[in-house]
Amino acid sequence: MAASPPVAPRPHPLAVAARFVMLALVALLTLITTRDPDRLWWIVALLFLSIPGVVAPRHRILAPAARFAEVVVVGLAASDVAGAASAVGSLGPGVGAEVILPYLAVPLTVAALQRRSREGAVLLGAAAGTLLASGAVNMTASGPQITQIGYMAVCAQWLILGGLGTFAADTLRRWMLVRETKPQPYAEATRLLTQLRSVARQLPGATLDPGGIAEHLLEELRAVAPADRAAVLTASGGGRLVVLAQSAMERVDWETALDADSAIADAWASQQPATASRSQSRSHRGAEVSALVVPLVAGVRSIGLVVVEANTSLAYPAPVVAKVTAVTGPAALRLEAALLFDEVRSLATNEERQRLAREIHDGVAQELVMVGYGIDNALATLPEDAKETAEELRTLRGEVTRVITELRLSLFELRSEVDRHGGLAGAIAEYARTVGSAAGLRVHYTLDESTARLPAATEAELLRIAQEAITNARKHAGASNLWVTCEVDPPYARIEVTDDGQGMADKRPDGRYGLAIMNERAERIRGRLEIRPRNPSGTTVAVVLGASPRRDSVRDSGNAPEGE
């Protein structure tokens, strides 16, 4: 198929209007100053020469030639009008040139906006030459017009203004070009994420997992510094730190407040290694202790801390500190990349969940409500003898009500988040209480949460696993009781959901799909999913993160005290 001919560019309506407004203004000023209608033939000439700029503003030959002719005509007209104005005495000698010279801005500005900087310089030179030549030729009573101070001052003034206007128009054009070519936010995000994916595939182990990087860092530190306890902490909301990974034989309650009187707070504020002769754990009761806190700094920003402690005095002299900082320096950049990736993934996930919740609420949920109202209206208008039809409609109405309830619970699940101040245990308990109340389940709780917090992304994944386990028990188990255990002692956590339903005999595909999702989430945070039968009936689903540092374990969930 033959290609269609290129479409000639249309002049901008504002540019055309500005050109003709300028012509009208110059014509009016010429008539007022010269009091001679014959002098308007200059305006007619400019009007004729402006036609190519309106009809073919981008023509390679015609448009530049017309602009050059406009500049020459303006120079000749300025000299002629200046002489006529001086003759009638309306203006001083030569000053009348300023009546026509403002029109110079039109061809100069058009050339600048069309990226013709060389043409603009040529036009300025042509205007200056024409003004000088016409001023030398035109004679007045006192001699050549070029000898009049007023004429030369007006010409110089408008030539300077024309040059400044050309520069300003060119600068505006460049600024507009930058604004037009600036990548859109989503295009820029796509480009950056594509680069991130390529770089991630080249990383050792192809991992961007903050917990995995933190554990590898602790392994590296064991070879260069003595440590009975060690941890990697990173920043979280509320001016506190969270434990990404730790190495210890027993429970360690690390100081996570950044406003406390501790080496941790000092190292964070100064971005320099800090040593102390007392433990940075609030639970340690040992006698001799050496502590070393090294900040993880990427660029100028602190992203975390490494804490190592030994049960001896003076365990970290300057050479040891130097070895530790040599290891933590490169690790800081790796950890920052992993944390940023984790944050981007969490933001994208949360936004998608909120979008789905809005679509479900505003779409299918509202439509189902209207269907329910329609069934109610049909029941109200049925004749009394249509008992069979009425019974079928009541059954259908009950099914619609059930689906609406399911949707409302799904909306609650999609919108549920771990509150920064409430913690993971509170979010799980709230969800279990809401679902249990809707399904008629008796829910029993065992909640044991440390004041320290897990990373936000890890808490979010654990909440989703707990929600899926609770939902499976409600939908498929046919249970009467639900036991929920939440034990959090960063970096360790255990979430357990037990029901007294029919157990693993349920082979429904959607239930199995939920188990697969839970397993994928557990693997993502380096946890392990455990599914086992409960005696005498029911199922236990548990997710365990890390190894428990506690000597005493949480009581079995089947013996937990009852909640609501």
From TrEMBL:
Keywords: Kinase, Membrane, Transferase, Transmembrane, Transmembrane helix, Two-component regulatory system. The keyword Transmembrane helix applies. SMART domains: HATPase_c. Residues 363-549 form the Histidine kinase domain. InterPro entries: GAF (IPR003018), GAF-like_dom_sf (IPR029016), HATPase_C_sf (IPR036890), HATPase_dom (IPR003594), His_kinase_dom (IPR005467), Sensor_HK_TwoCompSys (IPR050482), Sig_transdc_His_kin_sub3_dim/P (IPR011712). Pfam families: GAF_3 (PF13492), HATPase_c (PF02518), HisKA_3 (PF07730). The chain crosses the membrane at residues 12-33, 39-56, 94-113, 120-137, 149-169. Gene3D superfamilies: 1.20.5.1930, 3.30.450.40, Histidine kinase-like ATPase, C-terminal domain (3.30.565.10). Residues 532-564 are annotated as: Disordered. One of its GO terms (molecular function) is kinase activity. The keyword Membrane applies. This is Signal transduction histidine kinase. It comes from Catenuloplanes nepalensis.
